[in-house]
C-alpha cells in the first residue's frame, strides 16, 4: 500500500484497513510459528503498512485537533 493511497482514504476506511491488516499479521505469526509460512516477506510488508496507516491516522488527528 502506497502512502498516496493512504492519504486519499478517510479515517473510517483507514481504521477498517488497520483491523484487516492486524488480523493478517496475527495469522502470519501463527503460520510462521507452525512452519507453514511460504511468503516470509509478507510479514514485513504488513507490519510496514500497519505503521503507515497508524502514522496517517495520527497526522489526521493532529490536524483535526489544531483546527
UniProtKB/TrEMBL annotation:
GO cellular component term, pick one: cytosolic large ribosomal subunit
Cleavable signal peptide: none
Keywords: Ribonucleoprotein, Ribosomal protein
Keyword rRNA-binding: no
GO biological process: translation
One MF annotation (Gene Ontology) recorded for this entry: structural constituent of ribosome
Tree of life domain: Bacteria
Alphabetical list of Gene3D superfamilies matching this protein: 1.10.287.310
Keyword rRNA-binding carried by entry: no
Family: Belongs to the universal ribosomal protein uL29 family.
Name of the molecule in the record: Large ribosomal subunit protein uL29
Lineage of producing organism: Bacteria, Pseudomonadati, Pseudomonadota, Alphaproteobacteria, Rhodospirillales
Amino acid at each position: 500500500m502506497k502512502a498516496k493511497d493512504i492519504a486519499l482514504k478517510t479515517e473510517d476506511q483507514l481504521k477498517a484497513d488497520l483491523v484487516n491488516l492486524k488480523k493478517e499479521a496475527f495469522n502470519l505469526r501463527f503460520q510462521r510459528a507452525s512452519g507453514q509460512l511460504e511468503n516470509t516477506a509478507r510479514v514485513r510488508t504488513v507490519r510496514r503498512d500497519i505503521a503507515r496507516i497508524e502514522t496517517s491516522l495520527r497526522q489526521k488527528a493532529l490536524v483535526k485537533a489544531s483546527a
